[in-house]
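subagent[fold] <- orchestrator: predict structure for attached chain, return tokens only, no commentary.
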Amino acid sequence: MHIVSAYDEDLKFLAGRVAAMGGMAERMIENSISALVHNDAPMAQKVIAADEQLDAAQREIDERALAVIARRQPLADDLREIIGSIRISTDLERVGDLGKNIAKRAISVAMSRQPVKLFRGLQSLSELASAQLKDVLDVYASREVGRLGSVRDRDYEIDAVYTSLFRELLTYMMEDPRNITSCTHLLFCAKNIERMGDHATNIAETIYYVVTAEQLPAERPKQDRSHDVTVEVDD
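subagent[fold] -> orchestrator:
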């Protein structure tokens, strides 16, 4: 009984640390976009510093998970749970990296402010990505995998908004070459947010596998069409 209790504590620890990482990643997204929109360098520095904590949490999960596998030799449900914690923590760590990158670019963009409408587009994109990550973390806590379809639907919406924003930024750069440097930073920020959505989708797929022992049904092709965007140049 003592061994079973200790094993349960190991699994609870992993689930708790994944949940904590999720909260940290959510805050990093919110704070990095806030720093970008409001020209808040101290907030950007806070995000950059927070990434070290997220990295440390991910390493802790890896080490604990591997130790549990070595000691307990888990099978079936338990093994999927442990491997799932490793995979999800990796995706959350990547989300943190993307938030840190946005924070760094926020500091660079602060020297040349762009029209408010461009920042509104980034805000809208980040709100979609944040909601998607929150939803998938809620499913991780509840194990109600029937809700995962809405996570994928939001990913298609994120791709569509990203493509539209990509086009808008490119047009703005073509209209005035002086905007190229700052708009390039914003393009990278937009891409980072779009990638956050991809990681949330990865997490959804992992959760589905952990709970059902099956792969989530194949999804439709991604709707990011930025590679097809063209801008007309006046003679």
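orchestrator: received. Logging for downstream: The helical segments are 2-37, 41-72, 76-109, 116-142, 148-175, 180-212. The chain has one domain: 2-228.
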